[in-house]
Design brief:
Protein name: DUF1864 family protein
Organism: Streptomyces chengmaiensis
CATH architecture of the largest domain: Up-down Bundle
Number of domains: 2
Structural class: mainly alpha
InterPro entries: PrnB, Trp/Indoleamine_2_3_dOase-like
Number of strands: 2
Helix content: 55-70%
CATH class of the largest domain: Mainly Alpha
Largest sheet: 2 strands, antiparallel
CATH topology of the largest domain: Methane Monooxygenase Hydroxylase, Chain G, domain 1
Shape: elongated
């Protein structure tokens, strides 16, 4: 049992079908279980004809796709997606190979209000566990990679709600620091997930075996990335903490492209807050009116709490860039860009921005020195 399984049930209580994790996992609207169980063997043999037949066999009619509710439509996209990524890994554009899948992908995208292919959510959170788990390779390290993302989904859902609350508060309020403390607990799951990944997934395995399955595919003339871990929206937490008014053009452009792979409510969060005033800017403005030696207690608490969250994000990003460099080292890599479409240099830039904002907060107020990460 993972952290995901312990935390997920609370999501089911929300009025959001995309959080009905158990139902989506259990759904098999295309009767795909026996076919998808054979996908790892097909991929091991690079059996493009068999993968093509499997995609054609599972593709429902557009009318059938249009009749599905959101839960079943998400499960259907999940199951088609494993075959989409498998075919592209072997050099075949899946829509060109099976043209009848195009209107179905478009209809499932409309039904779910998401992009017309599978995303990281389909591949991880909405993927069954155990014998029904949909996988490209069947390797235990692939399962560990999926589990690492599952671990953070519930905490990130909660963090987005906390970030929306933070955006409504000011540093002089007690609730500002309290909300930041809650966000700190929620984003710690990212550090736990990256540590789990470092321990359980070899960078060489990711670079040589997994990365190829996350390539973009063409759907009606538009390219859509595969279910990359970069689609896990830690950047939505960045948004209200610092990015909305303290970012850089490269990161801003990456977010504008990445947001389309998110859930509808997460895209709404992005649109609502991308033009706002960040927590760092609010705190900096408040501190500019005060003496650093005589800060009001609530303002000092806000500085401590904000520095703590930024330090956790910095820790995650430092560890992430370490394993990314190993996976994309010259002697290992098959691709120049990460699975989310960004170069390694962007990871370095975002780490620097996170560190710069943490340093600004620490130097502007008497924030205790952090322990070594």
């Amino acid at each position: 049992m993972t952290l995901y399984d312990l935390a997920a049930p609370g999501l089911d209580l929300r009025d959001e079908p995309r959080y009905r994790i158990a139902e989506i996992r259990a759904a098999d609207p295309l009767a795909a279980d026996p076919v998808l169980a054979a996908v790892p063997a097909m991929n091991a043999d690079a059996d493009v004809p068999a993968l093509t037949v499997a995609l054609r066999a599972l593709t429902p009619t557009p009318e059938r796709a249009a009749s599905l509710g959101v839960v079943d439509a998400l499960a259907a996209m999940r199951d088609l997606g494993i075959l989409l990524g498998s075919l592209k890994r072997h050099g075949v554009q899946p829509v060109a190979a099976v043209p009848e899948v195009l209107p179905v992908l478009e209809e499932l995208g409309r039904r779910t209000d998401m992009v017309p292919r599978d995303t990281v959510h389909h591949y991880t959170a909405w993927n069954p566990l155990g014998r029904r788990q949909r996988m490209y390779t069947g390797d235990p390290m692939e399962g560990n990679l999926q589990d690492a993302v599952r671990m953070v989904f519930p905490s990130l859902v909660a963090a987005l709600g906390s970030c929306a609350e933070l955006a409504r508060r000011e540093p002089y309020e007690a609730g500002f620091a309290h909300t930041l403390d809650r966000i700190a607990q929620q984003v710690k799951s990212m550090v736990e997930a990256i540590d789990f990944t470092i321990a359980q997934v070899s960078p060489v395995f990711f670079a040589r075996e997994m990365r190829s399955y996350f390539e973009e595919i063409d759907v009606a003339g538009s390219d859509y990335l595969g279910p990359a871990a970069a689609q896990v929206p830690l950047w939505l937490v960045d948004l209200t903490l610092w990015q909305c008014d303290r970012g850089k053009a490269e990161y801003d452009a990456f977010l504008d492209d990445s947001v389309r792979y998110s859930l509808p409510s997460w895209r709404a969060h992005y649109q609502a807050h991308k033009g706002g005033v960040s927590a760092v800017s609010k705190l900096s403005a408040a501190l500019s009116w005060e003496s650093a030696n005589r800060l009001p207690p609530r303002l000092a608490a806000s500085a401590v709490s904000l520095a703590r969250v930024l330090r956790i994000l910095k820790t995650f990003r430092a560890r992430h860039i370490t394993i990314a460099r190993k996976a994309y080292a010259d002697e290992v890599r098959l691709y120049d860009a990460g699975s989310g479409g960004a170069p390694i240099e962007l990871l370095r830039s975002v780490l620097d921005l996170t560190r710069d904002n943490e340093t600004l907060v620490r130097r502007s107020a008497p924030v205790p020195s952090p322990r070594a990460a």
